[in-house]
Amino acid sequence: MTDFPVSPEAVAGAAASMGTDPVTLADLLRVANAPGFDRWQEQVRRTGGCSHPIRLMGQTVTRDRATGDVLYSYSTEHEPGGALRVACGNRRASRCPACAWTYAGDTYHLIRSGITGDERKDVPATVRDHPRVFATLTAPSFGAVHNRPDSGRCRCGHTHAEDAPELGTALAPDRYDYAGAVLWNNFASDLWRRFTIYLRREIAAHAGITQTAMKEVCRVSFGKVAEFQKRGSVHFHAVVRLDGPDGPDTAPPAWATVALLDASIRAASARVSVPVPASGDFPARTLRWGEQVDVQPIGALGHEELTEQAVASYVAKYATKAAESTGTVDRRIGELSELDKLPLPAHTRRLIEACWDLDDAYPDRLLARWAHMLGFRGHFSTKSRQYSTTLGALRQVRADYRARQERRERGLSEDLDDTEGSTLVLAHWTYAGQGHTPGESWLAASIARELHLNRETAREALADLHDMDDMEVWV
């Protein structure tokens, strides 16, 4: 593993060789030659190379509760810029690749522990013996779009390349149901909620028992993520698992099989509907899932085509993405006139315009507010209560590790569960801003790339160590 060069000369040389613009280069040299540059680098490295760190001003004092003696004190007064920088925590890769990488890693471990089990995350390894599938629920068609069918030739008569910009755009924009597409996105979370209700009913029906009886013997657990298709419609990928009545610690009944779960998912998705009343010039409609429903069994250690690690990696990949793959922006659009200043694809622009057109007709749906998301306003990743651990728990483990590390460096007890309260911490913090200057952004991006390279190297080494060439390992 390597470290990013810290000397101002190396920084300037690297930036100049990459054709950095004069304004950024001048600011970069200012930062690199300023007092406390090494400390600034240390702060940014601790954030993982965060693109938009939050700057805090304040102080903290640790005292011995019995004697009142000061054991440790810290103030941002002598920090670079008089502030402490902490990671923004944004999950979107388009906003902050560094924090998105951390979020994806947490999502990977959350999903994987619900598939393979992890005693450290309070999920027993016996969940591997429970029925588990990877299901994909899609949106219906709102009109023909350019695509790459198995035949190779699109309906437009051409064979499109994988990165062709027209993929997913309407073949006949004037006949495409843009209103239906954004309303479907807007109500997608309602469709999912109703699907989980119908799924439990279908499982009980396929098992030949009542819903009340099912609660006594079987529980449905899931972890899901939303993904935008090229056409601008969201769909859901979900790991669905059947447990015993008390969750992953208990075995499901003998009738709970992968085949039963597969059939129940398909039946439930076909039954779900969400009515949307008529309003203004817009007619009433009924929203449903698309006909394409994919359900695949999850195999342990490669015994099935879809491995446990592949599923966790796939879900983690999409947990950090939003609608940017369609060419939209990753921020709210305050006025419709802003669209003239944005380089939007025509198909994406019409979806955004449809949100604004529908806003007055359905004011409770906040379509204009969520126009940049093409109407979708739900959570991108969710899970049932007993699927596995939580993102909050994973973050707390990381925070506790760092806290013990810092206490050890200060000569304090590493026991964070000291119920006697032998120390007293007094702290005062205020928000001082967010983000980097142009030069700081260049340096932070370089640090983030270096950290990412180190992690990739460690991951490859771990995979080689365990002879897991086909296995995704998140370090």
Mean pLDDT: 87
Work out the helix count. Answer: 11
Gross morphology is globular
Strand order of the largest sheet: 9-4-6-5-10
Strand content: 15-25%
Query: What Rg, in angstroms, do the CA atoms define?
Result: 26 Å
The main β sheet shows up as:
5 strands, antiparallel
Number of strands: 11
Query: Could you say how many structural domains there are in total?
Result: 2
Series of secondary-structure elements, N-terminal to C-terminal: HHHEEEHEHHEEHEEEHHEHEH
Low-confidence stretches: 1-6, 468-475
How far apart, in Å, are the first and last alpha carbons? 14 Å
Helix content: 25-40%
Global structural class: alpha+beta
Pfam family, one: RepSA
InterPro entries: RepSA, RepSA_streptomyces
Protein name: Replication initiator protein RepSA
Quick synopsis:
This protein is an alpha+beta fold and 475 residues long.
List the helices and strands and how they pair.
Blueprint: H1 8-17, H2 22-33, H3 37-46, E1 54-64, E2 70-75, E3 84-86, H4 97-116, E4 132-137, H5 178-207, H6 211-217, E5 219-228, E6 234-243, H7 258-271, E7 274-276, E8 285-287, E9 293-297, H8 308-319, H9 346-359, E10 381-383, H10 391-409, E11 423-434, H11 438-465
Antiparallel strand pairs: 1-2, 1-3, 1-11, 4-6, 4-9, 5-6, 5-10, 7-8
Helix pairs in contact: 1-2, 2-11, 4-8, 5-7, 5-9
InterPro entries: RepSA, RepSA_streptomyces
Organism: Streptomyces edwardsiae
Protein name: Replication initiator protein RepSA
Task: Please characterize this protein's 3D structure.
There is one protein chain. The chain is an alpha+beta fold and 475 residues long. The protein has 2 domains: 8-92 and 391-465, no CATH class; 124-142 and 177-383, no CATH class. Helix content is 37%, strand content 15%. The chain has helices spanning 8-17, 22-33, 37-46, 97-116, 178-207, 211-217, 258-271, 308-319, 346-359, 391-409, 438-465; strands spanning 54-64, 70-75, 84-86, 132-137, 219-228, 234-243, 274-276, 285-287, 293-297, 381-383, 423-434. The strands form 3 sheets. It has a 5-stranded antiparallel sheet with strand order 9-4-6-5-10, sandwiched between helices.
